[in-house]
Amino acid sequence: MEFVSHYECTLCHEQYPKSHLDLTCPKCGEKGILDICYDYIALKKSFTKKSLKENSDPTMWRYLPLMSVVTRDLSDTLKVGGTPLYRSKGLRKKLGLVDLYLKDEGLNPTASLKDRASAVAVIKAMEIGAPTIACSSTGNAASSLAGNAARLGLKSVIFVPKRAPKGKLAQLLIYGATVISVDGDYRETFELSKAAISHYGWYNRNAAINPHLVEGKKTVAFEIAEQMGFDVPDWVVVSVGDGCTIASVYKGFYDLYSIGFIDKIPRLLGVQAKGCSPLYKAYITGKPFEITEEKTLADSISVGVPRNPIKALKGVKDSRGAFVTVSDEAILHAMGVLGREEGIFGEPAGVAALAGLMVALGEEIIKTSDKVCVIITGNGLKDVTNALVAAGDPITCPPDLSRLKILLEEKGRR
Ligand SMILES: *Cc1c(COP(=O)(O)O)cnc(C)c1O
Ligand SMILES: [Zn+2]
Predict the structure, then answer these.
(1) Considering all CA atoms of the chain, what is the largest pairwise distance in Å, rounded to the nearest integer?
(2) Contact by Cβ (8 Å): 224, 38
(3) Residues with CB under 5 A from ligand 2 (ion)
């Protein structure tokens, strides 16, 4: 919090001092999502590439000066961040790309990028003394909040739509959250959580509304830049639901650019599912988004009413980026290819970005000479039902070697 200068409303641009406690703009209400602004000049003096290099903390807290938490001792939290960035071999060749990197966010403690936001959310809740923290989620924000809250001894109340995959539901229950499975879609789930949060006075982890969460998620951009020696890619590819993640990636690179760590902001490719693409349509038409049905198997990005449209669209536009959509078939295909070629197992929304890269290469939005980084946002074990659809069936064999030989011969797997 030391270097936070003020808050600014993304809608009316009113500024508020850093002592401001409301999560949104009092004038604009829920749509007045705040942006947290920093004193980059002061930051530059004490936060340097050298100080970063000397910092032995591998977690996201290594970027603390660029974040909005007050707490200094963060050693009790789950270890979030420090996920691997792989230089692709097989996939790079297959796609004909000169340079491709894969950031595996599925290796966070609760197996998705959402941990970066939840780690901040639980700290912010502790800072104001809130004993209970709540959110509605398509699944990953929920499971990550439940895990991060459990670690610090906070209570969590979670609202998920009925469709949430079993893996995510199991995580929630194991982490001891109070889980409310709403018989409705994500929009209805969100509305119920909002009403309950205001009724009970719980701390609100709903990502778009709470500006501190973007400040946590943006650390993924810091890591990508640092892991690449601050020679950032031409394009970073991100799957989009509410739009918080892609907005955070933009903010992260913007911060680094502002303090002189990088000499350009990568272009951002936003990827939505064909069956639910309100932000894609808004970007293409230049009009406000329209409420959309939620018809995709990529549950984490099946968001009919995106909660962070302004920040998300601005991030893509200001980075001179682009938006594409991908079919569910393309998502399942990408899941298989990523597993086979790279040994990375992503959930559908986690690999949608890779499917989007394939579309963007086909449409020549991204060139094969471009240096690209794809963020794999969540782990495939969260949703094994769809993974099995993507992977097909095993070879079924009786306990008999001669039969096995025939079967392997037939499948060409010998
Ligand atoms: C939440 C999530 C996204 C999208 O993030 P938004 O902030 O909703 O745009 C993408 N992939 C996974 C795995 C997620 O959990
Ligand atoms: Zn406002």
Answers:
(1) 76
(2) no
(3) 9, 11-12, 14, 25, 27-28, 32
Q: What is the pLDDT of residue 99?
A: 96
CA distance 129 to 309: 30
Q: Where are the alpha helices (DSSP H) in 134-288?
A: 140-152, 166-174, 186-200, 211-217, 219-227, 244-258, 278-285
Regions of the chain where pLDDT drops below 50: none
CB 47 within 8 A of CB 66: yes
For ligand 1, atom 1: residue with the closest CA: 300
Length of the chain: 414
Instruction: Please return the burial class of 172, using the count of CB atoms within 10 Å of its CB with bins 0-12, 13-18 and 19+.
Output: buried
Distance CA 188, CA 219 (A): 30
For residue 244, give the ligand 1 atom closest to its CA.
Answer: 7
Q: Which helix (H) or strand (E) holds 341?
A: helix 328-342
Structure-block tokens of residue 82: 């420090």
- Closest C-alpha among 121, 91, 87, 119 to residue 104: 87
Helix (H, G, I), strand (E, B) or coil at 237: strand
Ligand 1 site residues, Cβ closer than 6 angstroms: 112, 114, 140, 207, 239-245, 300-301, 303, 347, 349-350, 377-378
Query: Residue 145 in contact with residue 137, Cβ under 8 Å?
Result: yes
Q: Which atom of ligand 1 is nearest to the CA of 349?
A: 11
Atom of ligand 1 nearest to the CA of 105: 13
Give me the chain's average pLDDT, please: 94
Q: What is the reported pTM? A: 0.95
What the block records as the tokens of 74 is 């963060």
Both tokens of residue 129? 């003394």
**3-state percent helix, strand, coil for the chain, nearest multiple of 5:** 45, 20, 35
pLDDT in tens, 343-397: 999 999 999 999 999 999 999 999 999 999 999 999 999 989 999 999 989 999 9
Ligand 1 centroid from CA 398, angstroms: 42
Contact 192, 169 (CB under 8 A): no
What is the pLDDT, as a whole number, of residue 414? 67
- How is 344-358 classified by DSSP, letter by letter? --B-HHHHHHHHHHH
Residue with tokens 């850093």: 18
User: How many whole angstroms separate alpha carbon 29 and alpha carbon 22?
Assistant: 10
